[in-house]
Amino acid sequence: MVHPLPSQESISLTFLGFILGFIVLKIGALFVLYWLYQRAFTRLVNRYQDSKDVIALTFNKSNLLIDTFVKTCFLITFLHFIIGDFSNYIPFKTKDIVQISTMAIMAWFAYIFVLTTEERLLREQATKFDATAVQTFTKLARLAIVIIVLFAVLPILGVETSGLLTLGAASSLVIGLASKDWLANFFGGLMIYIDKPFGVGDWIKCSEKGIEGTVMSIGWRLTCIRTFERRPLYVPNSFFAQTSIENPSRMENRRIKHFINLPYKDFEKIPLLLEAIREMLKQSKDVDQSKPIYVHITQLAHTSVECMVYCFTKYTDWENFLNAQQHVMLGILSILHQNESSYGIPVSQVIIQHVDN
């Protein structure tokens, strides 16, 4: 018995059914993957919602963008299944769009990660980290991320990076000559980051230029200083490479150097007074006993004996230093009062002669 051959129409219907079934299978698989993604993404959001970890904070700041990107990829894939390659309708290929979007998302995540890490480290700077070093490394990291992504995306857009590098090398000389002041400030800021003569929060002083205040920020071109009049002062970084800067914030002690004048009429008491003052300083809880303590006669002035009181307090902050200095001054006055002595006051002696006619 001879079986009839299938007709051309039945073969076409079978092939069409196979194609439609394959498309439905792919779309079904795509929807299953989308459902799994939604569940995983929701679990991640709930898991990292209240976490203070750096990765969690970075994810919380980027989850909306990541979710939008993934859903867009699913939409592009779905349209590709339905209508095929639609790159003819847009100026870029679908593959290029996905690559650029992926690089942008990765760069954004890395950039936010660096910012979050910087914020985390700056909160812990009082115990572990130096604020200036943290800001330096994070700025360099953000700059590196931008450069890497730029050179990765340009070839996809059809831009030759070799020509760009050649153009940059040729124009660097012109840019350097035109912006030598900016470059001087840039390298001045770089030297501040490397040498660390001062950092954010330090009290610095330049007596030559009358600059004094607290460092608020150190940029690549300018350093912001808050003066004691609470005014912001912006100083170019190149200035710090050309002048001497005093950093009182790194002092170990504050010094008391005071001169007292004792009257000549009490010259017999002066050795006893000086010894009493010296003992008072050695017993004071505000005076650093590991540092020099000097109480000596320094000059025989016209109207009094000048004596120097020299010591170091244990404090570096201004308020505690003033309180310690006040205790020392009051102690000196108490010693003078107990020994029935007085403070030498400048006097003028007028001699009047009577001349007879």
What is the secondary structure topology, with strand pairs?
Layout: H1 8-48, H2 54-83, H3 94-123, H4 131-153, H5 161-178, H6 180-195, E1 203-206, E2 211-218, E3 222-227, E4 232-236, E5 255-263, H7 270-283, E6 294-300, E7 304-312, H8 318-338
Antiparallel strand pairs: 1-2, 2-3, 3-4, 5-7, 6-7
Describe the protein in words:
The chain has 357 residues and is an alpha+beta fold. It folds into 3 domains: 138 residues; 51 residues, SH3 type barrels; 88 residues, Alpha-Beta Plaits (2-Layer Sandwich). It contains 8 helices and 7 strands. The strands form 2 sheets. A 4-stranded antiparallel β-sheet has the order 1-2-3-4. The longest helix is centred in the first third of the chain and has 41 residues. The termini are far apart. The mean pLDDT is 77.
- Residue share in helix: 40-55%
Q: Can you summarize the main beta sheet?
A: 4 strands, antiparallel
Number of helices: 8
Secondary-structure element pattern, one letter each? HHHHHHEEEEEHEEH
Structural class designation: alpha+beta
Total tally of structural domains: 3
Strand line-up of the largest beta sheet: 1-2-3-4
% residues in beta strands: 5-15%
**E-strand count:** 7
Q: Round the Cα radius of gyration to an integer and report it.
A: 39 Å
Low-confidence segments, ≥5 residues, pLDDT <50? none
Mean residue pLDDT: 77
For the termini, the CA-CA separation is 178 Å
Shape: elongated
